[in-house]
Amino acid sequence: MDTATPAVTVNDILDRFHRDYVPTLGERTQKDYARHIRDLRRHFGHFIADELRPRDFRDFMDVRRGKIQRNKQLAVLSCAYSEAVGRWYMAERNPCRDVKRHPSKPRDREVTDAEFEAFMATVPFRMRLAMQLSVATGQRQGDILSLRWDQVDKLGLKIRFKQSKTGKRLAVRITAYMRDLLVQCMEMAPDGPHVIRRRDGDRYTSDGFRAIWQRYQRRWARAGNDRFTYHDLRARAAAKCKSIEEAMLLLGHQNISMTRRVYDRAERVVDPSA
Q1: Which residues span the domain enclosing 53?
Q2: Is-contact 148 194, C-beta < 8 A?
């Protein structure tokens, strides 16, 4: 009687990765990973895990459009393999390590004061408040939408965040400008746990808010303006800081290289050496 253990497939690794690893990530990252995993299953799920080779990625990576998306999907599969090799002992090696990624460069879109004010004038009041809070605090869309009143210091001194993407804890001091924004949020919807809420009092979902944002960005573009992403507001927050070191702390980065490479997009005036 043949009692040989069935060979582990890439789908088997992705099953465990989705079950055990993905839930440890932030809400937005979980959704992104789930979407990537669906595509990875379609392309590689049927492979025996230890038989997958770098050359098997040729057609997958050879695309004219969506090259950065392919990089991200490859990174997810590489992460799954890393867990399978070093933690779950489901595979002997990670074939993704030898697959060459597409070259990429960070976004350099800078949202000017004039653009920010002009676009805000076109959006609903609730979105306007979210945008202003994002720039004032330097936090991501998801962390602003999930912001609760119990994170706001009762003495009005600071707002405590635990970033959903990284788990980083930080406290942002409340300025007079931010205090006015919070008062407007409270007056808009006095009942309920969340600072930014929909007209019916419930909190926005990330997908729902993103759909509204895209709708108004399309209108903005049809009027002859250049589109920008909500995440570009993080770079705008960095530009408002007095130094790159201050920007690093506000954005919650572990090191200054990330802040400098991705978010330091504004022109900085420096003194000459002589």
Answers
A1: 10-98
A2: yes
